[in-house]
């Protein structure tokens, strides 16, 4: 029985996607789901359920998402590959933006505009001295 409690204390309601240090155990979490899990584990232990029965009950009620390492299935594929897909998607957006970046156009200026720019720059040089 203690093995089930220890396992469920380690089992986070958040999958491995997040850092293990960041994922609170059900014992540390104040979330309603964690409180519900703690109460149900205690109740099942009082009823004399075995470790495997308690785990089966939790998985049946909440799905594989309550397990610390959910098994790879079609329903949990997003848990396993979601972070990688988000990273790849961000990288593709970045590459696409870089490749679509247009080079700055060279503007042709007239002789009068060139003279006016030179006068303005000369005026700034005189002010700095």
Brief synopsis:
The chain folds into 2 domains: 2-71, Helicase, Ruva Protein, domain 3 (Orthogonal Bundle), CATH 1.10.8.640; 73-129, no CATH class. Helices cover 60% and strands 0% of the residues.
Characterize the structure shown:
The protein has 129 residues and is an all-alpha fold. It folds into 2 domains: 2-71, Helicase, Ruva Protein, domain 3; 73-129, no CATH class. The N and C termini lie far apart (85 Å). The chain has 5 helices and no strands. Residues 1-21 have low confidence and may be disordered. Helix content is 60%, strand content 0%.
Strand content range = under 5%
SS elements, strand count: 0
| Rough outline | elongated
CATH topology of the largest domain: Helicase, Ruva Protein, domain 3
Distance between the termini: 85 Å
The CATH superfamily title of the largest domain: Cytochrome C biogenesis protein
Stretches where pLDDT falls below 50 for ≥5 residues? 1-21
Oligomer: single chain
Helix content: 55-70%
Quote the average pLDDT: 77
- Describe the sheet with the most strands: none
